[in-house]
Amino acid sequence: MTTATGALAEAETTEHESDDSLAEFQWRLSVAFSRARLLWKESAARIHPDLQPSGYKLLGFVARAGEANAHHLAEAFEMDKSVVSRQVRALEELGLVVSRPDADDGRQRVLAVTPAAHEALEALRADHLARMRAVLAGLTPDELAAAGKVIRCLSEL
To answer: What is the pLDDT of residue 97?
Structure first.
């Protein structure tokens, strides 16, 4: 076998192994996304039995941001404004957010989480953090940094 032929065979083997590794990674990512959807559903129910997972995600965004309006939510989640509007109305009816007129644009409403919602979200956050620590306890800081880098890359797809 010539050197060129050997190098080509080695490159094909490496490419095949890389494809297999990517396929395994893609499968694991799919499983993780499925688990995340289930966690959102469970978390929403812990906040309020009538809260939908999409409402839970919007509530979490408002809590992290301090306040937000429906336009920001629609952009952040790439959702139709009418869907966001229905979810915001549900969050208000459940007593999870309060709204006030936007000082800059009176047509907009600024949302903030209620103290009860904030307390419930903090309890969930503590629980999720404990679960994450338990699952990732065996990883080194370098491995966690590498995982974070992969997630950042995927968020740019």
So the answer is: 96
